Amino acid sequence: MLPAAGGRKATRKSRIFNIRFELTLNRTYRITGAFVLAVVLWNGQPANAQRLAEGAIRGWVRTETGAPVSEALVTLRDRLTGATKTIQAARWGEFVFDPVASGEYDVTIEAFGRRPLRLEGVPVRGGETTQLESVLHPGGPEAAGVEVRHYAGGVSGTGGRFTARDLERYPWRGRDLGAFGRVSSGSDDLLGVEGLPGSMTPLYVNGVQVGSSVTGSVPVFPLTAFRQVEFESLGADVEWSGATGGVVAQTIGANSRLEIRTFGDWITGAKQTGSVRGPVYSGLQAGAVVSGPLVADTSSFVLGVETWRLETPISFSPRLDSLASMVGAVADETYGEADARPVRLARTEAISGFGRFDWRFSDNVGLSANFAFTSMPKARWLPSSVDRAGAGTEAQGADAFLSASLATRFTDRFGQDLRLAWDRTVREYGPGETPSTLFVHDALAVGSDPLMAGRYAVNTLRLREALQYFAGNHLLKAGFSADFGFHEHTLGSQGRNAFWFSSTDAFAAGTGYVVRTTGESEVTFELPRYGIFVQDEVSFGSRLKVLAGLRWDKDDLPRRGYTPNVEWYLLTGIGDERVPRRRGRISPRFEIDWRPDAEGRWFVRGSAGVWDAGLDPLLFGDLLANNGGTRVYRAFGAFADWPETASGTGRPSLTLVATGFQGARSTRAAVQVSHRLTPAIEVQVGGVMRRTEMLPRRVDLNRAMEASGTDQYGRPIYGTLVQQGAVLTAEPGSNRRFAAFDIVSSIGVDGWSEYKGAHAAVNARVTDNFSVEARYTFSETRDNWFMARELPSPAAVSPFAADENGDWTEGVSDFDIPHRAVIGAELNFPVMNGIRVAGLYRIQSGQPFTPGFRDGVDANGDGSMRNDPAYIDPDVPGFAVVSAEWDCIRSNAGSFAPRNACRAETASFLDARLAIGLFGGTFGRAELVIDAINLVSRGAAIPDHSLYLVDPSGTLSREGNVTTVPIVTNPGFGAPLVSTSPGRMFRIGLSLKY
């Protein structure tokens, strides 16, 4: 927000603020705090306090000879909201705006007898002070008008920083924060950065972390609530907690006058043809924002609401397209299930809102409150498995956050920043009428994903306090943080039933394989997290700054709610009645900021440190819920009553944790160099190195101790393999160490991930009406975090034991995208009421994958159908045709496929926008927007990763300890199974501003 123009004078020397808050859930948790702050109020020169969410502007006004210009009037205008603030420079020409919300501003400077100067596009970043050197020439506005210059100083941000104005230039389809990921070369739609998934990316809104990794999804907060989003932006400031590589968002502030903005969009897409085929789809989006002052120069507000209904086509390959109707016909005619059909069109409906209120009681006291929410009564998630074309999970969701920040300056040297926040995330994945059912030979599915069943809810109360003290050239900061997370996990059994049929013919005959889960688990638990921090920021003049600090964090694991399984303990001696204790961990940080030249056109930042992530609540919930109360029934059979299953006693499954069970720990070093080549061209280059350890990995403690034999390629086999057409798995119970139990997962912390990345960005304002920007990121991510995209699935268990040749799971990460590039351009035509033409082109490397088998083939009999690589045998008929197209197959012939040896097709997208100003003036503006999205859409598809298929016409043969599995080469290897892009779509919208 902009500071008030001086504020109202206090009638007393001090005021008392008593803030009391209370949170009530299923149980009653009362956290009552009384913060008594004696606030000394006077109008003095503002001190440049370091804040996470806000920055400052400091400048000097001089003549062409370098003499100061006394008492010039300086006006700061927010380029996004239009809010303005005017102050008077000191006698020596210095002026300071503090605090200032992150964003872009115009600064206009006026003085008697001097030509006014306007600096456009002055950037402000949270925790930074932008410095301006302004020269006023003789003259006056009557003679020559206002001198206009584009800001030519160095930029302290990164190439991953985007404002709401950036999104206004280009088309986007979604209405949430993920839309910002589309214009970044270092992120994705799920806000995953630096080779880690979005579930591990901390999201900060106005300096406070929000959201939860419990669902692995991005909080669906409304897009219009945010004025700026920055990726990979976490500096070394120890006030930042959580994992490295975070996303920082700032909410929009109010206009200086009452303003109403509305928009409405209609979306449609044509039926796709060619390599993938999908139906016609449509969508609607609408919203309104009201903002303005409550009390002039003291308080302001912003309120907004959005609603949308989006349809997404599930586009099949032609082969699957013809089979989809057959599946529906069989389900209807044989089993009387008319709705059991592959999903062709998924719909998401949502309504969201946001608000912000700001009060400036004086120059020394400011209070800000924010909220946002989204309710999704209907949504559909695509399955996490890569070969379930046609499956989808009906879901409901809700996200909300509420925060308040009180910034106080007690003296010119001493101040504080207090932030209190509450956020809530809920995801409920319904089992649906149809259980997960996969037709193995064709990778076609109906029903929901068995890994996504249940309800997950978390309420988190967060408290932050930071005290700051200036001592000479030192800025000392110390404080604490406390997060109280209240989790509720309900895992229903019905949604976790799964069927595998070899083909549609086997489906009609009712011959298949089933995994049935009985019993429900409902757990509630608390995960408090505490932290304290201290740091010193030393300034050596105005061009060099060094920061050093320490942070200490501790997760307090609950001791109640966990009941060890006595039967397992008596069998094995493995088990502990206590949840592992987590000791506090210290995270040192260091950062250096350097401006080599006096003009500030160069900026260099280097940082290094350690970041500790909190404990993953999804894994802890699994530990509490999966303690033997649910039973797993596995069987081959004839299912005349599908989707019902025959009853069976089943075996209990368990989840245990290793002694060192805790959150991940990352060590990271980064460097960034920014340079303003000319007032219109800015370039940035940088690099990052990160290593994350203590990532969770699973081991099946109840898998047979020794392999019972091998297949024809030497692959270890556990238990006795059984074939039914294209389905291959172990005879139920034959691969278990203890027959009384099913899978017993032990979660260890021996996972690691390494990321190396370099990025570059160019922003060029070619003319006043034409601008171009380009961003590129090159990176390499390696880890042993096998199938991390599907955690906490048992598929994460390695198919091979580590030996003298190393660990097979070590290699290319599931999140490795070596090349990402974004190029955007905007052209303005100053005709009529303005016409804008913009285009955005994005290109990136394809997703890596491991050549293997279909889901439904457990090649080694360990109980998982998703973790087996193929042995690349050049003698299998059809191999020559496939290997001619795939180098990853040719180069690895005669060995088991390395993890993620292959990569899908390079993905590229082209979007375009035409915006026509209908009218504009003092009282309002209207704009007609026409978007063409995915004019080029290539490579956005899930490839068929199955190199071999189990030959339905063949049979298993055994000779001694060697089992020969009949296989044939899959002619469709690498071809698209289903498109992840909605295809070419068009949107027409109208936006109004009053």
Can you walk through the features of this model?
- This protein has 994 residues and is mainly β.
- It has 2 domains: 44-151, Carboxypeptidase-like, regulatory domain (Immunoglobulin-like); 163-993, TonB-dependent receptor, beta-barrel domain (Maltoporin, Chain A).
- 7% of the residues lie in helices and 50% in strands.
- The strands form 11 sheets. The chain has a 22-stranded antiparallel β-barrel. A 5-stranded mixed beta sheet has the order 7-6-9-10-12, with no helix packed on it. Strands 13-16-17-14-15 form a 5-stranded mixed beta sheet.
- The two termini are 21 Å apart.
Summarize this structure briefly:
The protein has 994 residues and is mainly beta. The chain contains nine helices and 59 strands.
The CATH class of the largest domain is Mainly Beta
Indicate the structural class: mainly beta
Shape: globular
Strand count, sense and barrel status of the largest sheet are: 22 strands, antiparallel, barrel
Number of strands: 59
Give the percentage of residues in beta strands. Answer: over 45%
> What helical percentage do the residues reach?
under 10%
Please report the number of helical segments. 9
CATH topology of the largest domain, which one?
A: Maltoporin, Chain A
CATH superfamily of the largest domain: TonB-dependent receptor, beta-barrel domain
CATH architecture of the largest domain: Beta Barrel
Q: Whole-number average pLDDT?
A: 84
In angstroms, what separates the terminal alpha carbons?
Answer: 21 Å
Low-confidence stretches: 1-49
Tags for this entry?
about 1000 residues; mainly beta; Immunoglobulin-like; Maltoporin, Chain A; 2 domains; 22-stranded antiparallel beta barrel; 5-stranded mixed sheet; 9 helices; 59 strands; about 5% helix; disordered N terminus
